[in-house]
Amino acid sequence: MKVSTTLIGSIFAFLLATSCCWLPFVAVILGGAAGLTAFSQKLDAYSGVFMAIGVIFFGYAGYTFWQKQKNRPPTITLESVLTCPNCGHQKNETMPTNACQYFYECEQCKKILKPLQGYCCVYCSYGSVKCPPIQAGEGCC
Fold this sequence. Notes:
Blueprint: H1 3-17, H2 19-29, H3 34-44, H4 47-70, E1 79-83, E2 90-94, E3 104-105, E4 112-113, H5 122-126, H6 132-135
Antiparallel strand pairs: 1-2, 3-4
Helix pairs in contact: 1-4, 2-3
């Protein structure tokens, strides 16, 4: 069942459950139809059932929405600012998504940066943002 279907079902059930309040008012506005008012009074006996159905639909809609949010893939940031530990030069770089970058040459001092011990790539070692696999929770690239 889709979220929109459950929301529509819950709204409809709540409208039926509260029909004893608003239906007579509508009947008076439309010309005081006595039959419609009597029908509203008959529905009043089932308002608890309609309310329960509405709560079930509404709860299921919330649960479905929560499941979609939980299963949504994390947002991956591909931009990272690399900072050279030798000269302090910073450069904004786009991280690759299909490979690890083990070496990076600093534009200013020309030093070749390598990953620090225990890190998988130069972005995890010297970047402002960890590499895409780490962000996604997949471990090292």
